[in-house]
Amino acid sequence: MIGIMKKVLYFAVCIAALFSCNKADRTGIAESANSGIQATAVDFEGFAPTRTAVSTAGTFAWAEGDVIGVVPADDRTMQTNFEIVDLGSNPKSALFDGGAWQLKEGKSYLAYFPYRGRYLTSSGKVEFSFAGQQQIGNDNADNIGAYDYMYASAVSTADGCATFAFRHLVSLVKLTVPAPKAASYSRLSISSSVSDGFASKATLNLADGNLAASASAASIELGLEDVSLSADGDLVAYVMVLPTSKLDGQILKAVLTDTEGSTYEFVATSAAKTMEAGKAYSIGFARESVFEDDFSWLAPFIAAYNSANANPIGDTVGDKNINANAPNAYTTAPFNTTEFAEAFAAHGYTDLNPGAKLIYPQDQYLKFSRTGGYNTALQLSLANYVTGTMDLVVMFDYAMMVQGSGTVDSGPIVVMIDGDGKFANGTKRSSQFTSAQKTGEFLWNSASDTITGASANTKLIFINGRVSNAVGTYNWSVSGAGRFFLDNIKIVEK
Fold this sequence. Notes:
The protein is mainly beta. It has helices at residues 299-308, 316-319, 338-346; strands spanning 6-12, 36-42, 67-72, 80-86, 95-97, 108-113, 125-129, 134-136, 150-155, 162-165, 167-168, 171-178, 183-191, 198-205, 210-217, 219-229, 234-241, 253-258, 263-268, 280-287, 289-293, 349-351, 359-362, 365-368, 378-381, 390-400, 413-418, 422-423, 445-454, 459-464, 468-470, 473-474, 484-493. A hairpin with a 4-residue loop joins strand 18 and strand 19 (263-268). The protein is elongated, with a radius of gyration of 30 Å. The two termini are 29 Å apart.
């Protein structure tokens, strides 16, 4: 996470008597062109682009045309605006001109960005919108500044100067979406199942700096201009949103539209979080799921087992317990029933070495094989999940069993293709996935690989690489210990 980097921006102001006040109000105030306003701001916490003319490396900068609104905190004097007149060579500092404004000693002022041209006092409200966001070029945050709503308060000093410490009222979200094909793209829409997940309009209360939704929707749109992507490229886009807890735990969806009007749907690869003001978030997307299994279908069988047995089914990996209960699915009720066999097969699963009886249920995941040269593998048929020919991304979590001595069982874990398709390496055998587990350590590892040319004829085999010689040729009795756990299998269209 990029730390908070304070940027100081200096405003030079021509001072004169503009406020509607009597001569006594101005007694002792220095009407000097050297008086002015100092404003501070901070980067978003996260990967950060932050403000107006900003690079994706996180550089803070003001831009030509930026205007702030300044309002005396007296509930009667109207706001005025301060506008950039000179950026200079350092975009971290800028010359703002407020015209004939006079700051009064000891008086309080409020400021906000960007300026809205209407009559306002400090008891007023400012209307902002999150609609109409537009990005020009891929991975370009130049245009987000218009939606970087900020607020500050200050008290003027004896010399007519004031310090405004601006704070961001919004959250910045970086979106990464894989290009479905080489094309130019015109629009990206992000949605949730929550009808009011995104604010479309918001109202800033000048008195306290609170920005609250005044209109909401289930989605937010970003227009795209001059965005052309290659078939293996990613769209990197930026949107500003109103901070919210309503998206927490939500799996967001995305729709990308090309300039020909074709649309492509995607799903987030992880759940969204509560979004806080002044913070930046990254959300990655993949094509809609072709297949997804978190093994929650085991739950009723586990509940039935636990109700009939004093020692419940364990969570070896989560509890880091080599002695966690892992009954044999072939010999233990209710797993040795027709109902379990049908549920297993309904997902497209086959045990490739069923005679050895080497599948062991855990708390909503599965364990495979045992020591002494007894091994098996899980085969997943895509017959019910794929139509035509598709390019896929295969993702799953795995862990290796740990022996009493602390030795981690040998891997690697690989995925084999039986039928149509090849992995990114041009073969039927995936990359080798080697566990990061150290001696005596349990942890889940995440693995993924891409497949081209998959079809309904494709079968995926999750197996210990020591067991597999080639597709259809397996050494089930290879010596040593190669026990492994599988969870969260997910296949999406590339």
